[in-house]
Amino acid sequence: MGSFFSQLSHSWGNIGSALVITIEGTIGGAVLAFVLAFVLGLMALSRFIVVRGVARTIIEFFRGTSLYVQLFWLYFALPVLGFKISSALACAIIAFGLNFGAYGAEVVRGAINAVPRAQWEGAIALNMSPFQRMRLVILPQAWVGMIPPFNNLLIQLLKSTPLMSLVTIADLTFEAQQLRAATGQTAWSYLFLLVVYFVLAYILTLLMNALESVAKARLGRGTGLRGVFRLRPADPTGKSLGAGLTGAGTEVGPTSGGGR
Amino acid sequence: MPRIWDWDLAGQALPLLLKGFLVTLAATVVASVVAIILGLVLAMLRRTRFAGVRAPVRAFVEFVRSTPVMVQLFAVYVVFPGLSPFTIGVAVLGIHYATYMSEVYRAGIDGVPKGQWEAATALSLPRGRTWRAVILPQAIRNVLPALGNYVISMFKDTPFLAVITVHEMVFEAQTFGGDHFKYLEVFTMAAAIFLIASYPTSLLVRRLEKRLGH
Amino acid sequence: MATEPKLPDLSAVDTPPDLPSGTPMVQFDKVVKRFGDNVVLDHLDFAVQQGERVTLIGPSGSGKTTILRLLMTLEKLNDGVIYVEGQPMSHMDRGGKLVPANERYLSTVRKKIGMVFQQFNLFPNMKVLENVIEAPVHVLGVSKDEAVERAKKLLDLVGLGDRIGQHPTSLSGGQQQRVAIARALAMQPDVLLLDEVTSALDPELVADVLNVLRDIARTTSITMLIVTHEMHFARDVSNRILMFDKGRIVEEGAPDKIFSAPENDRTQTFLRAVLEER
């Protein structure tokens, strides 16, 4: 174990840059997923059946196939078709963004559907345009309900980043395997790696909980500072992961956000 | 004349992919059984009166479900060199998903109305009988769709087993692609097979959910 | 709706306990129950004799339901002792000293008490017959055949003999409650607790349930402790009415006296409000 820690301190620089890469992959994927979630989610709620159909097809495709296969396809198969994505990291970010964007779209759709009908009607009665309705009334309320499932998805994303090590990206997992090779201390390296991911997951959850507190406070529904330090709520419906086709009115309420 | 999509190659690859798919299915089934049973065990352990059991179980569940399954696979693979990759794979995948399922069960058990417990007390039913005959049947019925969703999700995570050399479908795809220096056909077909398998299954789960009145 | 008294049939099989004369069936001795800072029962003293039908009335929060729940071991008291059939129930006798009862002790004494709940609480994963035979088979050790026979008789008595193979969800509220009554009686308890058993029912369904209870009161000698807002029913069935307010008994007496000439102010206000609604 002693040699593990001494090797660890030697490799601190490498671990540092590996950490940065893992974070880049996570955040990059998350941002892309976030954008796609809203685009696809709103498309899936469109009045026009063609728009809905396109969105639904894309969503079901990326939810129904494995992220692993999607990443490998982008990295190994896409070049054959003539498109070469600039870097492996970009590949990973795109794969994460597409996959988790599709799951996120269901969260967006469900949360918007969960806003009480009365709010829509109130907004219409105030003569708001559809765009104003969305921006001023519906989305602020739906947004609060989106955060716990998004938190779940974000942690899922973080837990998927080791895939990057399989396509030659020098992320934390890659670095841990280097460490293992150098020290021969197999268990410690992986244990260390797991702890790092756990800490990252907890930090992300803290941030998301803080975000949720802010969002709730703006709606007058605060839970206070204690709510920020909760561990990640569970997903007792499996919907954040499952490839289930969700029909109209899938509730993304407290159940899929986990216990509160 | 280089074609983009090589049908011959695809035809060659398909049997191998399907062979690997059988392993994928087997792994999914075994790991699911592990997860479904162990998940219930974990959920019930977390309800015990003994804080000395509750706390470590909770810590274990939180740690395992918040960390990457791929790293867990590597860790167990190198720590237990004697076991077969398939065994390690289904064990780790099963335990990992058991932690998710324990949360599902917890929600299901909490969702059984308190009055059911009180009626059982009013009839002097012993605790064991109350669990077996009253609570668990209702709890499990409540959470069947969620369990189904997690099984589908596990199915899509089986490619992780490839990194510990289990010859499931994606492993076969990678091997074939590497041998022939062409990955387009194999990965496209692998994706298609996943979709063909998971999409109808997810529709079934959705139907089950409607039937149970969710 | 059965009108002939079939239940004495079963009572013959189950002899009521032989209590030494003067021993009350149920006794609360300076019982205190707190929920947080809220004192719900404040050094409550009262007794119920064997075969008595006692109705507890009073505003919500006055502690009536808590009394039933304590007796059914659904809650633990903070101070005082509850005796059933002369033996302590909330406590065990350890060499002359009373210590709080453990679960093992409770599981032996609990069987004397049966309860019917406001929300029926039938087991939805079991059919009607299975609901009624579950406890006799698994707690009393009655053979399945015998339990089924008894269950059928009880379900006949409550007017649901033709529904034994159905699930509770396909029954109306009143029907479910009648099954719940049969289920409680199947355990042949010495004391039957009825906690606002018609409060959750549509008005039209209330009468059937009350009639079943009137039948039971008329044809058996089972001790009953009733919490209800149905004053006519209370008047018909009770030997004694206890008026509760803020965890204390403020007045008690025979139904005629309480309903016609209540002495206490609180009783008067309460009865005026409740009886005016009807």
Topology summary:
The complex is a heterotrimer of chains A (260), B (214) and C (278).
Chain A lengths: L1 H9 L1 H33 L4 H16 L2 H11 L10 H27 L2 H9 L4 H31 L11 H12 L2 H33 L35 H4 L3
Helix pairs in contact in A: 2-3, 2-5, 2-8, 3-5, 4-5, 5-7, 6-7, 7-9, 8-9
Chain B lengths: L6 H39 L5 H15 L3 H11 L5 H26 L3 H9 L4 H31 L11 H12 L3 H28 L3
Chain C lengths: L7 H6 L12 E10 L2 E11 L4 E5 L6 H8 L7 E6 L2 E2 L2 E4 L2 E4 L2 H7 L3 E4 L11 H13 L3 H14 L15 H14 L4 E5 L7 H17 L3 E5 L3 H7 L2 E6 L2 E6 L1 H6 L4 H13 L1
Parallel strand pairs in C: 3-10, 3-11, 8-9, 9-10
Antiparallel strand pairs in C: 1-2, 1-4, 4-5, 6-7, 11-12
Helix pairs in contact in C: 4-5, 4-6, 5-6, 6-7
Please give a structural write-up.
The complex is a heterotrimer of chains A (260), B (214) and C (278). By secondary structure, chain A is mostly helical. Chain A is built from 10 helices and no strands. In chain A, helix 2 packs antiparallel against helix 3 and helix 2 (12-44) crosses helix 5. The longest helix of chain A is centred in the first third of the chain and has 33 residues, at 12-44. Chain A is flat. Residues 242-260 of chain A have low confidence and may be disordered. Chain B has helices at residues 7-45, 51-65, 69-79, 85-110, 114-122, 127-157, 169-180, 184-211. In chain B, helix 1 packs antiparallel against helix 6 (127-157), helix 2 packs across helix 4 and helix 3 packs across helix 4. Helix content of chain C is 38%, strand content 24%. In chain C, strands 8-9-10-3-11-12 form a 6-stranded mixed beta sheet, sandwiched between helices. Chain C has a 4-stranded antiparallel beta sheet with strand order 2-1-4-5, with helices on one face. In chain C, strands 6-7 form a two-stranded antiparallel ribbon. In chain C, helix 7 (203-219) links the parallel strand 9 (191-195) and strand 10 (223-227). Classes of the chains: A mainly alpha (260), B mainly alpha (214), C alpha/beta (278). At the A-B interface, helix 3, helix 4, helix 7, helix 8 and helix 9 of A face helix 2, helix 3, helix 4, helix 6 and helix 7 of B.
Q: What is the gist of this entry?
A:
Chain A is an all-alpha fold and 260 residues long. In chain A, 71% of the residues lie in helices and 0% in strands.
